[in-house]
Amino acid sequence: MIKIKELTKKFGDHLVLDKVEFSIQDREFLVILGSSGAGKSTLLRCLNGLVQPTSGQITLNGMLYNKKNIREIRRKVGFIFQQYQVIGNLSVLQNVLLGRLGTKSFWNIFFTKEERVRAEEAIEMVGLVDKIYTRVDQLSGGQKQRVGIARAVLQNPQVILADEPVASLDPVTSEEILSLLKRINEENGTTIVCNLHQLDYAKKYGERIVGLRYGRIQYDGAASDLGVSDVERIYGNHLSMQPNTGKTVKPSSTIQVLTT
Ligand SMILES: Nc1ncnc2c1ncn2[C@@H]1O[C@H](COP(=O)(O)OP(=O)(O)OP(=O)(O)O)[C@@H](O)[C@H]1O
Ligand SMILES: [Mg+2]
Q1: How far from the centroid of its chain's Cα atoms is residue 26's Cα?
Q2: Whose CA is closest to 233, among 214, 249, 246?
Q3: Residue pair 53/20 in contact by the 8 Å Cβ criterion
Q4: Residue range 30-39: average pLDDT?
Q5: What residue's CA is closest to ligand 1, atom 8?
Q6: Ligand 1: which of 10, 11, 164, 199 to mutate, judged by most atoms within 8 Å of the beta carbon?
Q7: What is the atom index within ligand 1 of the atom nearest the CA of 45?
Q8: What is the pLDDT of residues 57-107, one digit of tens each?
Q9: Cα-flanking dihedrals φ and ψ of residue 127, to 5°?
Q10: Which SUPFAM superfamilies match (predicted)?
Q11: Residue 249 pLDDT greater than 50, yes or no
Q12: Which of 79, 87, 90 lies closest to 132 in space, CA to CA?
């Protein structure tokens, strides 16, 4: 469905993605793993057309990512952010309807009755029916993330890209949000590509894992096959020199616990 070929991104001299190459299958739940700075967000942003690759090629169902196609590609690719990207002084319903803005023209931003019904269905799916008219700034972090998910669902995309959707949430809420994404994947057949920092969630919810280190793929395979040596290749298990910045980085304690 999505084919990524020799995808390279440089910010100035800084090589962030280095000839990344893999395909994303229809209806797959793919998790991208990697240390901070590995290039995960940059990769997702390329897949949404928010970041322009330095070289390489991406296609969605054979359609090349370029200026001409980008509006159509964005309609088929939903995005969920770590920082919920909701508008606090609007209601849940209004925030979800914003997901349809991409289909409107400047002189017609009114929503149809059908759009409203579909927005209500999306809100029901994420479990926020009783908050439909509540201002979003009165919601918890987990509820705000549900609003973001409902907005992506209303767009009825083929793919939802989620950039660390549970980074600021407690463990119980995190699992609720990931279960919700899994349900959308299974019931709606939406392909999910999700950046995560938690290995245990990656193995529990992901079917497939792509592991990045310094913008290069270190692992691409079934989540159930990811072993300790793969994890070490993705994160490193010793003090190491980061080639891109020259900074010494120490692996986080979470990783050390999981690899021992
Ligand atoms: N717009 C930008 N301009 C310059 N450098 C950037 C830009 N966006 C990202 N980078 C750099 O690219 C590298 C990869 O960043 P990216 O956000 O993709 O990493 P990440 O894997 O998502 O990390 P994290 O887990 O911390 O979110 C970082 O060193 C970052 O500083
Ligand atoms: Mg990131």
Answers
A1: 15
A2: 214
A3: no
A4: 96
A5: 42
A6: 11
A7: 18
A8: 999 999 999 999 998 999 899 999 877 788 989 999 999 998 887 676 666
A9: 80, 35
A10: P-loop containing nucleoside triphosphate hydrolases (SSF52540)
A11: no
A12: 90
